[in-house]
Request: fold
Amino acid sequence: MTITPAIRTEAEIDALVFSPDFKGGHVRRNNARRTMVAWNNEILLEGMERLKKEAHRRIKCEGAKIQDVRHLYAEASALELQLL
Reply:
C-alpha cells in the first residue's frame, strides 16, 4: 500500500493505518501514522506561510491596508486549526 502526502484528518489517518490493506505490526503502523501527521502539518505550514507572504507583499508593494488582506489572515488561521 502506497500512501502519498495529502491533507488528512486524524480519523482519515487512523482509517488508513488500521485498514486491512495495511501490512505490518504496531511499530510500522505507529511510524506510518507519525509520517502522515508530519506530511499533513508540513503541507499546512507551507500554505500558511504562502498566505502570510502574500499578505505582507500586498501591504508593502501595493499599499494595501490591513483591512484589505484580512481574508488572507483568516485563511491562514483556518489552516492553522487543521494542524494535528
Summary: The mean pLDDT is 87. The two ends are 23 Å apart (CA to CA).
